[in-house]
């Protein structure tokens, strides 16, 4: 339906327009009945619909309708599967249509800076490329059903402690390379209907009132077309926020900020055109939903089956020393409270009221042969960190009598949630102790983890099997059993590094600061840090095993040399060399060898998930563009790839590179010359525009120091290093050149 929104807005009173810029209540936007503008509802729902009535709350304390809890982002990102994530979005979009919800508050794409962040279970990855591609696929799926998304939380919201006032102190390059790209990719590839701005400040300015963030970057640079909504209660100054580009404040302010807007227009401190623009953006999105609203059944059972399939394609097999898959005739002991009462979602605003939940114990009971051979022992409580001697003894004896033991371990819900961060990276002590005892009694032990973020594993070297189930959604038990018994071949890959211990994390010394959190690690987040340090990790980014094996061959680039304006096509052959069908995630990383600036050892710039029958070979093709090779140059205020050699690498994780080829990039961009008396002779010699002056001054310096050739302190490499590091001004201090000569050279350089 064609609508003239500007004409509609011209018929609204100032009070009505101001009212459109804040919520009616916790979940609804205001209506203007006389103009045919109805209320529309928004709801939490990045991994399931959490629809509450108007008396609801944002933190999940009150009830919501029964719905399907799908695997949260910590698990679904491990699918590395764009098509599956698009299908996921379509399912969520249909559920929203069935329940009269216009906008889903998600996905959440904040980077996992530290394993301690209490909300990491809602976030996709430590890697901005993976997070952006995953989010874009999900958003396209949701919005294909004419239901909006609200990508969040923009930006640099990476801790829960004091999240409503803390300032994330981050340099621009780090923002552009690590904390912005997931949002940027989603905006450019999927155009989310809304963007949710975060609570925190960024370099001292609240995200809600930062025009650089919400207008210059988000709209002017990236082309965002929807409206910006605040996180619930995130607005600090309503007028500054509106001017900065935040259109909708949620929830209702009870009319307080509506009156502030009216007063600002009346006294001239806010242009009414700014208010009109905000209202137009809000109405355009509301009518996108209203004009496409349709009857849609709420298909709970079918969606439960999809939740199972998503979990099966995402759980990560981390270790398998010929202990998996389980055989249905084997005697297996299921141990741990999570086998019967699984933890499958996180706490807080995304908490779903699941209409049913499958446990591993229930799921295996539906497998006739296997169920006869499975025994269960609780071993430990899923809620308390208490070592119960009686429960432990029963579990150890069950493990001893079995052929194999599977321990279902994990973090109690109280350990991680929205609103607070973890204080450590450990499992409950009772679980670590029992796992160690089980392994002594039964060498063929497998551990299945239920957690929203990595944990330390002191028993890792002794256990024969390990599966990272993360938080698996309400079909968690079915997915786990199908994977453990080989009904489904594992194909998930880690979307984050699992460090050996918390202290290894690059943010260890600064995470969780209360007033200002300094992101001193810069771009070296996650595997970018661990790989650059060549640090031992428990499991690297991108890692995951299968019940089959794959071989990589015939890596080829369509060109050996390109300009930064051209694309590069990369192809590689993948063969299933095992005996069962499986899926492999082909990962493409780029290494910059130019040394133009300090960069990570490698960065993910492409991936594809491919399905292969035994013996089958397929060719995987990926395309790289300028951004695939570039870093953000703050002097240029743009992305820059220096001329030189770059390695194009494909592999099975960031640590397992199978094949590599090099490409020459020829940059069309010349960096601006930064010249003054403190420019070193090495810097002059490194640029072809100034090299002749640099070599001239270096030769004069060599001649000067040559008269001290007999002095061992100034011989050989020492002399060359000294000269390279000398600023131009020191040539006068040493008497190598006169001040007039140096100033004359500098004048000629400035004329270049």
From TrEMBL:
This is Glycosyl hydrolase. GO terms for biological process: carbohydrate metabolic process. InterPro entries: Cellulose_deg_GH3, Fn3-like, GH, Glyco_hydro_3_C, Glyco_hydro_3_C_sf, Glyco_hydro_3_N, Glyco_hydro_3_N_sf, Ig-like_fold. Keywords: Hydrolase. Belongs to the glycosyl hydrolase 3 family. The keyword Ribosomal protein does not apply. The keyword Hydrolase applies. It holds the Pfam family Glyco_hydro_3_C. One of its GO terms (molecular function) is beta-glucosidase activity. Residues 584-654 form the Fibronectin type III-like domain.
């Amino acid at each position: 339906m064609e609508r003239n929104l500007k004409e509609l807005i011209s018929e609204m009173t100032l009070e009505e327009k101001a009212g459109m810029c804040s919520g009616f209540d916790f979940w609804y936007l205001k209506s203007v009945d006389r103009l045919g503008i109805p209320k529309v509802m928004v709801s939490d729902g990045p991994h399931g619909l959490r629809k509450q009535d108007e008396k609801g709350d944002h933190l999940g304390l009150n009830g919501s309708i029964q719905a399907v809890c799908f695997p949260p982002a910590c698990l679904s990102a491990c699918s590395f599967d764009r098509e599956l994530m698009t299908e996921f979005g379509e399912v969520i979009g249909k559920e929203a249509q069935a329940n009269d919800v216009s906008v889903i508050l998600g996905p959440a794409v904040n980077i996992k800076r530290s394993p301690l962040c209490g909300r990491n279970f809602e976030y996709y990855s430590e890697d901005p490329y993976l997070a952006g591609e995953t989010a874009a696929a999900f958003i396209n799926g949701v919005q294909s059903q004419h239901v909006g998304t609200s990508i969040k939380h923009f930006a640099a919201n990476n801790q829960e402690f004091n999240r409503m006032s803390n300032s994330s102190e981050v340099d621009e390059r780090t923002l552009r390379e690590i904390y912005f790209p997931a949002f940027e990719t989603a905006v450019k590839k999927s155009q989310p209907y809304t963007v949710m701005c975060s609570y925190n400040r960024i370099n001292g300015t609240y995200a809600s009132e930062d025009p650089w963030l919400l207008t210059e970057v988000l709209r002017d640079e990236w082309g965002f077309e929807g409206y910006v909504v605040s996180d619930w209660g995130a607005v600090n100054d309503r007028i500054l926020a509106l001017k900065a580009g935040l259109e909708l404040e949620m929830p209702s302010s009870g009319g307080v900020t509506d009156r502030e807007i009216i007063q600002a227009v009346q006294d001239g401190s806010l242009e009414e055109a700014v208010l009109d623009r905000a209202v137009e953006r809000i109405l355009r999105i509301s009518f996108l939903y209203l004009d496409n609203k349709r009857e849609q059944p709420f298909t709970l059972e079918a969606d439960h089956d999809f939740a199972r399939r998503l979990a099966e394609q995402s759980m990560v097999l981390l270790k398998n020393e010929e202990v998996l898959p389980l055989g249905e005739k084997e005697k297996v002991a299921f141990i741990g409270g999570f086998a019967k009462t699984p933890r499958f979602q996180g706490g807080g605003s995304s908490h779903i009221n699941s209409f049913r939940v499958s446990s591993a114990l229930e799921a295996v009971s539906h497998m006739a042969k296997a169920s006869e051979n499975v025994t269960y022992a609780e071993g430990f409580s899923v809620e308390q960190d208490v070592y119960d001697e009686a429960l432990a003894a029963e579990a150890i004896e069950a493990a001893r009598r079995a052929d194999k033991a599977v321990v279902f371990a994990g973090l109690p819900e109280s350990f991680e949630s929205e609103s607070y961060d973890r204080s450590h990276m450990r499992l409950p002590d009772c679980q670590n102790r029992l796992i160690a005892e089980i392994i002594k009694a039964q060498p063929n032990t497998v551990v299945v983890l239920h957690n929203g973020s990595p944990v330390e594993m002191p028993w890792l070297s002794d256990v024969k099997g390990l599966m990272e189930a993360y938080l698996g959604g309400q079909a968690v038990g079915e997915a786990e059993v199908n994977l453990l018994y080989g009904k489904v071949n594992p194909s998930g890959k880690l979307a984050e590094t699992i460090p050996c211990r918390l202290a290894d994390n690059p943010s260890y010394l600064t995470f969780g600061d209360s007033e200002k959190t300094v992101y001193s690690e810069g771009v070296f987040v996650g595997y970018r840090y661990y790989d650059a340090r060549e640090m031992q990790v428990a499991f690297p980014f991108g890692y995951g095993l299968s019940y089959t094996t794959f071989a990589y061959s015939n890596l080829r680039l369509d060109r050996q040399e390109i300009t930064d304006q051209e694309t590069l096509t990369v192809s590689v052959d993948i063969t299933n060399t095992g005996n069962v069908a499986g899926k492999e995630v082909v990962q493409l990383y780029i290494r910059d060898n130019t040394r133009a600036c300090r960069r990570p050892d490698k960065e993910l710039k492409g991936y594809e998930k491919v399905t292969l029958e035994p013996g089958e070979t397929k060719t995987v093709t990926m395309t790289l563009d300028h951004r695939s090779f570039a870093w953000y140059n703050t002097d240029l205020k743009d992305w820059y790839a220096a001329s030189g050699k770059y390695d194009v690498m494909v592999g099975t994780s960031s640590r397992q590179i199978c094949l590599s080829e090099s490409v020459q990039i020829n940059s069309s961009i010349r960096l601006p010359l930064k010249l003054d008396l403190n420019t070193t002779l090495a810097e002059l010699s490194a640029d072809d525009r100034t090299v002749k002056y640099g070599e001239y001054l270096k030769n004069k310096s060599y001649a000067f120091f040559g008269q001290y050739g007999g002095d061992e302190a100034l011989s050989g490499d020492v002399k060359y290093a000294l000269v390279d590091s000398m600023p131009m001004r020191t040539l006068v201090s040493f008497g190598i050149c006169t001040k007039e000569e140096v100033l004359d050279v500098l004048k000629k350089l400035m004329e270049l």
